[in-house]
Amino acid sequence: MNGYGPKSSLLIGMDCVVLCAVSWKLGWLTKSLPLFWSIVGAAWVLGAAALLHRGVSGWADLPKAVRVIGGVLALWAAWLAVAQARVIGINFLLSVLVLVWMADIAAYFAGRAFGMRIAKVKLAPSISPGKSWEGVWGGMVGVLVLALIWTYLDAHWQASVPSLYTRVVMQSWPLLPIVVLFMGAMSVAGDLVESLIKRSVGVKDSSGLLPGHGGVLDRVDALLPTLPLAMMLYTLLS
Prior knowledge:
2 strands; mainly alpha; two-stranded antiparallel ribbon; single chain
């Protein structure tokens, strides 16, 4: 989607693999990296806001090197976040993954049932015409319910590894809805950023590797910002 041929794209992919391998070799999977995750988290929040504000045309205005380096770093940071979350524990990792999936599923059904019936306007018609505000609201309700149920089950089963939600509650109950809604909103932002990039370059799917699913990037777009942000919250709350 940046105009590179197969060989150049493969080399760029190998660069990402090398970054992951070096991180593993340096022992970063088990190291606390509060400053690193804060920088990555801030970059995602500010970068996504800037891209969505500038719209579809804004992506093409960025230098190709910036787009490519930013993409590689985003994929690497997401991989490192997954790896660190797995080291923390399955319950923690799943609580982040399922939050994104719940936001997506609840938004889909809420959008189908109530789309354009309340807000009367689309969420981002120039970027992703199918998304509605009603869908976003439904996704937010879904992740709030998920967080409450998961927190209850953690306590009921005395989970040895706290989920993201339980870690937040251990600091403050009122903080839970703020964190969950923030994470849900960033999952939507990740989805919209990927849609913006595809629309900017005039493609429907990011690849043909997963026919009918829009490509691999479509399956992980919402995870790219939420995984690093989850690790940022983990380091701040530890």
